[in-house]
Amino acid sequence: MNDFVYSCPVKVYFGAGAAQKALSREMGRYGKRVMLAYGGGSIRKNGTYDAVAALLREAGKDIVEFPGIMPNPTYRKVQEGAALARAQKIDFILAVGGGSVIDCCKVISAQAKTDRDIWQMEFEDHEYPAEFVPMGVVVTASGTGAEMNNGAVITHEEKKVKTGVLGAFASFAALDPAHMMSLPARQVVSGGFDTLSHCMETYFGSPRTANVSDEINEAVMRNVIRNLRIVAEDVHNEEARRELMWDSALAENGILKLGKVTDFQAHMIEHQLGAYTDCNHGCGLAVIHPPLYRCLYHGAVERFAHFAEAVWGVDGDGKTREETALAGIEALAAFIRDIGLPTTLAGLGVEPKEEMLRAVADSARIQPGCCRRLTPDEIYGILMACR
Amino acid sequence: MNDFVYSCPVKVYFGAGAAQKALSREMGRYGKRVMLAYGGGSIRKNGTYDAVAALLREAGKDIVEFPGIMPNPTYRKVQEGAALARAQKIDFILAVGGGSVIDCCKVISAQAKTDRDIWQMEFEDHEYPAEFVPMGVVVTASGTGAEMNNGAVITHEEKKVKTGVLGAFASFAALDPAHMMSLPARQVVSGGFDTLSHCMETYFGSPRTANVSDEINEAVMRNVIRNLRIVAEDVHNEEARRELMWDSALAENGILKLGKVTDFQAHMIEHQLGAYTDCNHGCGLAVIHPPLYRCLYHGAVERFAHFAEAVWGVDGDGKTREETALAGIEALAAFIRDIGLPTTLAGLGVEPKEEMLRAVADSARIQPGCCRRLTPDEIYGILMACR
């Protein structure tokens, strides 16, 4: 166990009536003016909007609407929200949505409290916001785990960069599986794969000697895989949906990352693919992971072999460690096919132009802690292998 | 996954220099007058006292000493601490010790803020304290996980009851394995067994259908068992000590309990045995667990069989589920012998008088959520089987 400092200040309400419980217990602490932020309007169709708005009115709040947060939320949208929050003297931001809505609000929460440009502040001056408009979350799509941390993935269109920005922690998060039951099957499965990716990208970081964070991670990965197989067959299976909703939060509440430096190269590559193509995040990760791991495993054969045995049930008897490692990667690839996620860029709806893939490879921001830090040429090779 | 509400407000500093980091970063938020609470004085011998006192003085604090908190801390000691905190207008309580010191301080923190008697308030009026003197923790002995929650185990001598009382959460906890390296081997091992017991008593609560909390729990149990075997052979193994220190916190930070109602009958029986005999907590649990489980498993054969396979590596092939379940309990019993913990009341240093055991059985406070709720006669039978 390496050294760490840990706190997760988000209070979680999980299960039936979570939004009702959370809003009635928590909203009394905050002022009257609430920004209600959401996405493309599906919550207006499935009843979640009406339920949440009624709870806010019951709590005596004035609602200021901020709709239209897009998948892959943009920096422009952050600025629009921050301007609205300032103009309307917003006391509290309630994000009702999935990772895109939540992430956008985390950065609005910070940007509304400072005259400095948050992007310049974080990426050029390397300073981080310290003041935030308080916020809460009602989760309507899971997988990103955005409700549990203060990282936000934002796309800066002019700069053609999609990357992590630090914003606010939510004070509370309501996770009611009922709010997610109208999601399309593809989104449920791709969200679950995003969770699995968070687990794997933590697991293949360093150190890779035995430690309880990784052993817990193996348990969460097995749970995600089992329940993803169930929802791929029957998207209405409520128990599997509940497990996946909590798995998503667990993968990003920090518990799996304690004492670890994470890898997250698949995410960094996918983020840039998303910046260039606006592809679905979980599906993009599904395409990238197997070719990435076929390239990475040489740097960590024993860890990949252990992953194969502990997570995929590969029998290592009579195999070299390298063969076992590769069998694990092929089990992951077969799983992606089994649950119906895309396995190529074409399947992802992306035209695999070499120039664009080169630009993605050259702009991917690879972080420290990697299993083996890939060069832009290697990333380009991986993307070409995804065609 | 059943419904739950979860937050753990304790900020953890884990690893080398944790106390230095925690005190220098956190103490600025609190007033000048700090109660420095500890136990029998071992921290004065091993240098921890001097280091912590110097850090408090550096932070500009006045130190008010509160030494002499005993193992199995008493309600009288709580009242003594609360009176001192009031008289000295204490702004912050720093508990430096293991579970006994931490638990005593949690209740002092509550009692110092009210004129009502906390015992009467919680157990007769069923009301819980809402105001606390803020507190922090420097852990010097682990196993109880007391640093992560707001439950405190206190012995009321006149009432002959040792039980859980709700008190304060620490704002921060410093977990530096270096502060524990001078602990006697027996205390390291019995503390680790307390952690394993917390895991098992959560695992055998309800529900017992597959869920991610229990799968994580299995991972933590395997980690505790592996590392306890290491420290039983070599108490100075630093990596194993580090893992056990974080396992202890994990077992009680709530993550394993999400969506579960816990069992905790072994703890409830041991608490009363402790109230009557002042025995070591972890050792008492070691004596009680196998006979308790031999009596309990009929109510949850499949869960005990799964425990045998997933945690102890029992091969269920060619065995009935009952045989597999029993093989797991015998593996637990063998493990207790292997790591040198007592297996009988005599080994625990307790004279097994029938009248005393009857009183223990009759006064054990069995809670809801049990695997199978034992009657006082059954508990008496279990205690007689411990002779």
From TrEMBL, chains A, B:
Gene3D superfamilies: 3.40.50.1970, Dehydroquinate synthase-like - alpha domain. Residues 9-177 form the Alcohol dehydrogenase iron-type/glycerol dehydrogenase GldA domain. Keywords: Oxidoreductase. Coiled coil: none annotated. Residues 189-383 form the Fe-containing alcohol dehydrogenase-like C-terminal domain. It holds the Pfam family Fe-ADH. GO terms for cellular component: cytosol. This is Iron-containing alcohol dehydrogenase. It comes from Candidatus Avichristensenella intestinipullorum. The lineage of its organism: Bacteria, Bacillati, Bacillota, Clostridia, Candidatus Avichristensenella.
